Amino acid sequence: MDKFTKLDGLVAPLDRANVDTDAIIPKQFLKSIKRSGFGPNAFDEWRYLNHGEPGMDNSKRPVNPDFVLNQPRYHGASVLLTRENFGCGSSREHAPWALLDYGFRAIIAPSFADIFFNNCFKNGILPIKLDAAIVDQLFNEVAGQEGYKLTVDLENQVVVTPSGQRIAFEVDAHRKYCLLNGFDDIGLTLRHVDAIKAFEAKYKVAQPWLFN
Amino acid sequence: MAKTLYDKLWESHVVHQEADGTALIYIDRHLVHEVTSPQAFEGLKLAGRKPWRVGSILAVPDHNVPTTDRSSGVSGIADPISRLQVETLDQNCTDFGVTEFKMNDQRQGIVHVIGPEQGATLPGMTVVCGDSHTSTHGAFGALAHGIGTSEVEHVLATQCLVAKKSKAMQVKVEGQLQKGVTAKDIALAVIGKIGTAGGTGYAIEFAGSAIRGLSMEGRMTLCNMAIEAGARAGMVAVDDITIDYVKGRPFAPKAEQWDAAVAYWRMLHSDEGAKFDAVVELKAGDIQPQVTWGTSPEMVVEVSGRVPDLAQAKDDVQRGDWERAYAYMGLQANMRISEINIDKVFIGSCTNSRIEDLRAAATVAKGRKVAANVKLALVVPGSGLVKAQAEQEGLDKIFKEAGFEWREPGCSMCLAMNADRLEPGERCASTSNRNFEGRQGQGGRTHLVSPEMAAAAAIAGHFVDVRNF
Questions:
Q1: Domain with B234 in it: what CATH number?
Q2: Does one domain contain both B200 and B104?
Q3: Is A191 an 8 Å CB contact of chain B?
Q4: Cα A105 to chain center, whole Å?
Q5: Which residue range is the domain that position B336 belongs to?
Q6: Are A158 and A108 in contact (CB under 8 A)?
């Protein structure tokens, strides 16, 4: 996993609530047995005018000019600004894989669905919860200024706007530590091998039917 | 101190806890399907690791499998990418010695149907699967939830999950359900009340006399849709209904182990006076048959109701969502739900494909015919064993005589990863769990209902109150 320390990124606004993981990456692309290559199909049904299938040359497909991420001013965005309950629905990790492959490293919303939120941290994406009123303000600022960028500073847990406004955010200590260092959980968990083995031994005596 | 069921399940599985509350939770049962596991197995192989406890894993292909003729086996799956995914699961299970019910095994079926059916899901367990509808298994007084693929690999490698304890919500449903009102209607009514984010950050315990009165099938339907209310986990306390269901199943404990297990399972309920962070109450008698009208499960009304008017929206964000939903669904505000005609019907999915669901739908379909405007009405049993049981009871004949198609088990048109799907603009009465844009096929329009309501809609050609049917 890539480290996440500080990001100075162009912001793209996706002004919808309840964006589900089926919308982020439609089911036909879940047939892949790889972790990479989902970026060109992120938001596929909104982004293109024809139906997408795996294996298509996406560069030749007709794009939907009305979809916000297709506007040239948002090309190269690495911060996604969106509304409440982002990432609801399916647990598919293909959703954060697609967003990461597209280029997003940070997502700002008033709230996120639990499983998606968790999956982001496993892939070096920082999801940031901010008050709905602040999110509203950011939507207005993005609309009003082409090339609008935000600085996301994980170490100091702050988002800085172009005018210098500093917006603090919360993040779990464990998740922050993993992101700052690019650590994945398996390596960290295996430091507790003895504790797991001890737990298992005791547990096997108490509930032997779980080990049949 | 009085504990909730969730407290008990959580505390009995903590292996290690950090100062910030991040914990390592021991996992008892790991269910695996073909869509969310290949990258996890690959990760395991690349790191030179093996599954920590291979006996805890049960695998099954369900999302990509055809529901039509399977006589030529996996090589007969028409879509080469789907075929490769199923073959990859088979290969990974062979390589690591994982128990798998392969596509043409009679025990094959939807992962959330076969776990309980086999007794692989037991009270008191932690159950995970790379699938959000893993909440289903909480019906057994288990802590069960969906995980991402990185976590699938983590559980394979360490038998543990890194997690933080959620808040606890009690959804209390007291009283008697009206005839024709089901667990599916309770689930949709709860989501209508608290919204699809209402349970975010919570584990939900469903309680109250109406829940205790539900069969295990009904409890599974309810817990299945906890995730649609935003909660990763849903659960119901253990009682006689739970224990009777588990007894004698292939993976369930036997002989003296059975008695010890039952003694333990009897403690799996919230204590009198246990504190919840949130309580939501519904009166069972007030719940009507539900139909979703929009593109989120919270866009739901009673069958006697109408598509809501923008004036009823709570804010601008919701107004925008509703306007997009009207356009996508091809509906206008204030239309009567009973005036919405349908093109297809899907009875199946991890929500509603168990024997009781099929019996309920067959009771409605018996001696009647699918309406002429309905192009396709599918019944997809949740497992090969459900299918066999239904055939033994003659349900297949009832469905076929009424004009339904009787298929092989799998996820099918719940998410249309196989060949079963809606075409653009087609409208479906579906017993599945998600009505998101494109969920059942690009441009497809999904209305979520109970099995009884889906069968009634198939016969009438439009939504109809099954209580008057």
A1: 3.40.1060.10
A2: no
A3: no
A4: 7
A5: 293-468
A6: no
Confirm or deny that B414 is annotated as ligand binding.
yes
Contact B200 A85 (CB under 8 A): yes
Scan for tokens 């298929």, then name that residue: B407
pLDDT tens-digit profile of A92-132? 999 999 999 999 999 999 999 999 999 999 999 999 999 99
Two tokens at A161?
Answer: 């706007």
Do A159 and A97 form a contact (C-beta atoms < 8 A)? no
Into how many domains does chain B fold? 3
Is the domain A6-181 a CATH 3.40.50.1820 member?
Answer: no
Q: B436 and A23: CB-CB below 8 Å? A: yes
The span from the first CA to the last CA of chain A, in angstroms, equals 36
**A29 Cβ neighbours under 8 A, 6+ residues apart:** A38, A41, A44, A52, A54, A94, A98
Alpha-carbon distance of B280 to B76, in angstroms, equals 49
Tell me the domain boundaries of chain A: 6-181, 184-212
Q: Where are the alpha helices (DSSP H) in B205-345?
A: 209-212, 216-224, 240-246, 255-265, 316-329
Is residue B305 domain-shared with residue B387, that is, in the same domain?
Answer: yes
Q: Please, which pLDDT band fits residue A184 given cuts at 50, 70 and 90?
A: confident
Residue of A nearest to B323 (CA): A16
Beta carbons within 8 Å of A168's beta carbon, 6+ residues apart = A157, A158
Residue A119 C-alpha, separation from nearest chain B C-alpha, in angstroms: 6
The first and second tokens of residue A185, run together, are: 């959980």
Boundary residue ending a domain (B141, B164, B187): B164
* ∠ CA B141-B143-B144, rounded to 5°: 110
